[in-house]
Design brief:
binds pyridoxal-5'-phosphate; 404 residues; 43% helix; 2 domains; Rossmann fold; alpha/beta
């Protein structure tokens, strides 16, 4: 196998041993249909024109590549922030939903379903459904509905129906199960917009391609600012892996570029309260894909925990499982308190309040050893407005314990 193909999905949907499409018989036709047409559609002139136009005029791309001077001073290197937090709806997720709804329309689908955890993907999906005048049903765990009130209200205002899921932990994993169940009941008229690089083939590759606009822009922007189109380090947080996939996509075969990913350590990877799937997972099948899964001895899924609702998923995209297993990416676990502290640091140094998910990769900075000449590009996947209650609670606790 040559290098170029190493990190690309193969025709059976695998990255090494990870990936594939493990689906019930009833979904066979819609998944194989999607497999056979998605690349052709994504590469067609007509799709590209409409997608690029919406990314520019509606999402607000290109997102800035911001040289963060004070943060750079603190870590002794040159740090650029890729500002996905400035996108319409406040995160990178909209890059994917805009692309998938254009795909759904070209497939003649009438109805859109989605799963959501923190609500960011639900909002991004409800947004493009309003834009395209399509029916939208979003599955969300009852626990998350309680934790993320404003995102629920946003989805409703956008015209989506939010269906509460009360099985399991009542979080993202359970919402995904329920969305798949719905899809099985309506395979012919319904398109399932998956929110990350997870699920059966072709979703991981489809979502990575739609998010790859992030690294396409980084290349151009770095060339303009630095006279070379690659950094020494790329850094991103991973829940399912979509903002990271977009950040690294066009650099996967460039060994000059080191890749550092952060997963949610929760209260510590040894604590039993963690979502560090790459550290703790074993190979299994989750939501249609063979990947690393947090599971017990009997293969029962273990409930993940993170302060960040966008990162507490018991699986991980098959691409990222592969990149970590073959050594292409270094994956660090960043705990709740490290992420919270890093969020305050960015806010005070640069005047940018990051999403809690993004705060995890910021928390990885202090675990790194940089040289002064190093150029680092770190993706701020979203903005922190939705996380203010958690941030305020944390400040109250640290003030009370005299740490501030
Ligand atoms: C959903 C979300 C994530 C995690 O999802 P990925 O698919 O791993 O990118 C990270 N950051 C933000 C702001 C999110 O909304």
């Amino acid at each position: 196998m040559n290098k170029m193909e190493t990190y690309q999905v193969n025709e059976r949907g695998f990255y090494g041993e990870f990936g594939g499409a493990y689906i019930p018989e009833i979904l066979h036709k819609c998944v194989t249909d999607l497999q056979s047409v998605y690349r052709e559609i994504l590469e067609s002139r007509d799709f590209k024109q409409e997608y690029d136009r919406l990314l520019r005029d509606y999402v607000g791309r290109p997102s800035p590549l911001y040289p963060a001077a004070r943060l750079s001073g603190k870590y002794g290197c040159k740090i650029y922030l890729k500002r996905e937090d400035l996108n319409h709806t406040g995160a990178h997720k909209i890059n994917n939903t805009v692309g998938q709804i254009l795909l759904a329309r070209r497939l003649g689908k009438k109805r859109i379903i989605a799963e959501t955890g923190a609500g960011q993907h639900g909002v991004a999906t409800a947004t493009v459904c309003a834009l395209m005048n399509m029916q939208c049903v979003v599955y969300m765990g009852e626990t998350d509905i309680r934790r993320q009130r404003t995102n629920v209200e946003r989805m409703k205002m956008l015209g989506a129906e939010v269906r509460s899921v009360t099985s399991g932990n009542m979080t993202l994993k359970d919402a995904t199960n329920e969305a798949i169940r719905d899809w099985c009941c309506h395979p012919s008229d319904t398109y399932y917009i998956i929110g990350s690089t997870v699920g059966p083939h072709p979703y991981p590759d489809l979502v990575a391609r739609l998010q790859s606009v992030i690294s396409e822009e980084i290349k151009k922007q770095l060339l303009e600012k630095e006279g070379r189109d690659y950094p020494d380090y790329l850094m991103a947080c991973v829940g399912g892996g979509s903002n990271a996939a977009g950040t690294i996509y066009h650099y996967l075969n460039d060994e000059r570029v080191k890749i550092v990913l952060a997963e949610a350590g929760g209260k510590g990877i040894e604590s039993g309260m963690s979502a560090a799937t790459i550290h703790l997972g074993r190979t299994g099948i989750l939501h249609g894909s063979r990947t690393l899964v947090m599971q017990d001895e009997d293969g029962q899924i273990e409930e993940p925990y993170s302060v960040s609702a966008g990162l507490d998923y018991p699986g991980i995209g098959p691409l990222h499982a592969y990149l970590s297993r073959c050594g292409r990416a270094r994956v660090v676990a960043v705990n709740d308190d490290q992420a919270l502290q890093a969020a305050y640091e960015l806010t005070r140094l640069e005047g940018i309040i990051p999403a809690l998910e993004s705060a995890h990769i910021l928390g990885a900075l202090e675990k790194m050893k940089f040289r002064p000449s190093d150029i680092v590009v770190l993706t701020v996947s979203g903005r922190g407005d939705k996380d203010l209650p958690v941030y305020l609670q944390y400040r109250k606790e640290t003030v009370l314990s005299g740490n501030e």
